[in-house]
Amino acid sequence: MATIINCQEVGLQFDGGPNPILNNINLQIQAGEFVSIIGKSGSGKTSLLQMIGGLLTPSKGEIIVNGQNIMSPIDEMTYVFQKPVLLEWRNVLENVLLPIELKRRPNQVDRKKAEELLQPVGLAGHESKYPHELSGGMISRVTLARALLTAPKILLMDEPFSALDAMTKEQLQLELMELSVQFSTTVIFITHDLSEAVYLADRVVLLGKNPANIIREFSVPFQRPRLKDWKFEPSFTKIVKEIYDEIEGLSEDKE
Ligand SMILES: Nc1ncnc2c1ncn2[C@@H]1O[C@H](COP(=O)(O)OP(=O)(O)OP(=O)(O)O)[C@@H](O)[C@H]1O
């Protein structure tokens, strides 16, 4: 597999900030890989994702995505924010079509593709509904369909399911896993939920505050897509426990 995202010696310090938020980040992600990023609040997960997405400029080092030095957002990447942003005056289908419409007038092929995407994300039959008629889970499904419409090579997701109830979250995890495998999408996924991190990913990256860099990486050597019952298997809980112990082991003075 080829490296599609390459962070080399990346550092970030905000203007006027006393210490770097991130330091010496070296992270190589392979095309089609699913990587979860975890770490305590304030460890810089969102900042790292924003730098990879070209929304924030590193103070040090460089980030190369798909062969380009990242200076601003590029077409091959789609960013899914923690808070879903839907336009209230547009129905589900129109919200899904938004990324196309920002570039050009959607044609019949685009509409057909958008309608087809509503099926696997569980929104078939809801295309004419407006955001105020949707549940939180349905809104997340719209943002997932919208993110996948342009078939991005890379999906950057910042805690996309954190506000959902457990059952909806589980359903969306399954859908994301199926779709990312089907489209061979490279995904970087931030979460606070260890079980979610392990279940979805090929690799889990743990960020620490002090030092402000990658503390450890955990491989999840099981083929995707995975059955939802895998979460009850010892092979799954063993990895979750290993990560949990590592986080617990980070002494208070290190945080
Ligand atoms: N624009 C900014 N200017 C100055 N400091 C910032 C800015 N954005 C974030 N920070 C600081 O950078 C640190 C890392 O923030 P970031 O949001 O990347 O962490 P995080 O790991 O994603 O946190 P959380 O899990 O709470 O979402 C925090 O201490 C935050 O206060």
From TrEMBL:
Keywords: ATP-binding, Nucleotide-binding, Transport. Gene3D superfamilies: P-loop containing nucleotide triphosphate hydrolases. Residues 5-234 form the ABC transporter domain. Coiled coil: none annotated. It holds the Pfam family ABC_tran. It comes from Anaerobacillus alkalilacustris. InterPro entries: AAA+_ATPase (IPR003593), ABC_transporter-like_ATP-bd (IPR003439), ABC_transporter-like_CS (IPR017871), ABC_transporter_ATP-bind (IPR050166), P-loop_NTPase (IPR027417). One of its GO terms (molecular function) is ATP hydrolysis activity. PROSITE patterns: ABC_TRANSPORTER_1 (PS00211), ABC_TRANSPORTER_2 (PS50893). This is Nitrate/sulfonate/bicarbonate ABC transporter ATP-binding protein.
